[in-house]
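User: quick one
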Amino acid sequence: MSADIAALAAKLDDAARFAKATPQIAGEPISVGDAYAVQKTSIQKRLARGERIVGMKMGFTSRAKMIQMNVSDLICGRLTDAMMAEDGGAISFKKFVHPRVEPEVAFLLRKPLIGKVTPLQALDAVEAIAPALEIIDSRYENFKFSLTDVIADNSSSSAFVIGPWRKPDIDIANLGMVMSINGRPQAFGSTAAILGHPLRSLVSAARLAAEFDVDMSAGNIVMAGGATAASALSAHIYVSLEVEALGRCGFSVED
Ligand code: 0L1
Ligand code: MG
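Assistant: Done. Structure below.
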């Protein structure tokens, strides 16, 4: 029997909207294609409420993340404007189920990028790059999910913060990254941990976007994926990220 895409999408949309954990998808595992169909249908519910797509995120892009979550495939999720939090601003802990944060870099596209592309073509499509933090929040109870569960759940995408944009005229292959909580370094990494080079993540984003009908228009943001394992968030903390040559971004967490 094929998956009930609409019912699963409604369940996951409710879980995200009301910050209430939901059980994993029951029964036979659904296919990857069906999982992306659930993701797309649940995001359409947000769009119907007035949100708009601003980009996409890549997931499971570092070995540390794959080991942390016990998976081996790249995934992607859709970003809407309502998920974007202001750099230096505050987010409310209540909006999440069990949020974590991870250090990333983001790309801003100056032209569409879709299908099979080379790293040079990917770079040519980049208007700007920035340090970025992603707040991931699996909507599943006890943070337990399969690969298709997490894809259906918009790849845990929940919120993100983007630092200052700069021209892509520097080598981003191996930039040091330090994510701090309340000023104390919490995770050290390098952009090299993002698939060996963040541009590889952009190449994979273009491929996944073609395969699963994800928007990669000019003006969109692509979150390249975590460079380290994610850290748990709690209320009353300040999270900051410094990426060598790119600068800083951060946010505080309120009740
Ligand atoms: O790397 C990612 O952004 C994937 C996130 C999905 C798993 C999680 O919720 O930790
Ligand atoms: Mg991420």
